[in-house]
Amino acid sequence: MPNSQEATSSNCSDFQKNIECNGRNTREHEDSCGGDIPNLCPPEMPTSSPPQLFSMPELIETANEVSKMTIAHEIIVNQEFRLQEVNFAPNSLEDRVKETLHKAFWDSLREQLSKSPPDYSHAVKLLQEIKEALQSLLLPQQTRLRSQIEEALDMELIKQEAEHGALNIANLTTYILDTMAILCAPVRDEELQKLRVIADPVYLLREILRILDLMKMDMVNFTIQTLRPHLQEHSVQYERKKFQELLNKLPGGLVCTTDWLRKAAAEVSSSDLKSTSSTSEITESPVRSCPEAHRDVLSMPSPTAVLNQAYMNLLYWDFGKDGYPETVLMDKGRLQALQAEVSQLAIIAAVLLVSKSTCGSKVFSSAGYEDRLKQITKALLVGLPDTRLEDALLDISNQIHQEINRILHQLGYSALTADNSAVLKGQLKSLADKDNTVRVLIEQRIQTFLRHCLAPGGKISKNLPHGLAPIQEELLEVGQRFGNLINHNRQVFGPYYSGILKELLLPEGMADPGTVSC
């Protein structure tokens, strides 16, 4: 299976695991939206019900629907999405089983063709399969070529020739290769030319089938590329429709999403309370002159702020625990990769900031030297889990120290003193501590930048906070990907977020915030 399909299978299981994680009650949501919640009316959200038992056909149907939705989503958000040839790991169980079965089949075909008279039973079946593969590659308007294939590979005639020992496999394979040359992409031309010199009919048939499989994949990828603009136009409605169909089958399917938003709401409320308390002694809020209920509404956290906080929390998610939001499951792998990149960029920027503050501007004012230090740091962090960050920073501190002394020597300056060397290494190694002041400062500045990337349709500013200039190119690329991903998610699932946030933020029985005024 191609990598994208493996991700689809994983997402299916994750989705079903999350939507069945518990059976908390979910209230029915109101029909209208208010405040700065996405201006969409929430769909009908089924209330929770006792666990249901599904038949195997129903489970298969549900898994297929998840796969369809995930593949459509993958095509939209991943511009590099394409099907790829299956390649099992060398000497793996799958690879050995595949090779054993293939060898047994082709050895059997060779044995049949070597008989006197030859036995063409397997060969006829292969020719039928090749004919169907060629026809599957035709466009609807290629009626003339379809008729030619039907005539040249007339299976009734081929079976009669096989029964009488008069089947000419060489002539048939020559016509098949000529037809493949008409239908294949230019990238396959060289491989087809190599097939024309193969004299062994068994090996030739095997290679023809292999290349036909690749041509099918080429056709599918071409179709995906052609249909992508059309899919982008309708993807939001399609994904939302499919998701709603899944919720109808599996009630109570937004439990983890609700918990995710509840946690973000608590964080925003806590932050707002701290901000309010710091200014309450300076000025009196006009809310005090309002009725108590109205005051609650005005002090309610902004729904957009809550949703943005929830999105930011995805970049710092503990993937070792359950409860990932159902509405973001299709992007779980991408968000996990973004999280790793953001963490790596924070360490790189912190390493360069510490190095610059310790060594002064001598090294960093010279063209290319700062980039050289960045590449050294990046190379030592690639693929490294957080549990080994301390070991990596030890290596980084030694490498940075050596490189800085080498650069100072090239520039005609004296090497770092023993005290400066000890300070540099010590401060670099201390970045392994999550509470390190420099590391926390850099992470906060990266968060500030990425939060701006969440504005719908907003342009990403290239004016980065101080200390992030060395990672500007990488951070802008991460911000673009993160913003596009989140904005698509907001469009698809905005109605669901609206309903949940209204229940979480409004006091019970309170009217829509848009109708409240003081």
UniProtKB/TrEMBL annotation:
GO terms for cellular component: acrosomal vesicle; sperm flagellum. It comes from the Eukaryota. InterPro entries: Tcp11 (IPR008862). Pfam families: Tcp11. GO terms for biological process: protein kinase A signaling; regulation of sperm capacitation. Belongs to the TCP11 family. This is T-complex 11.
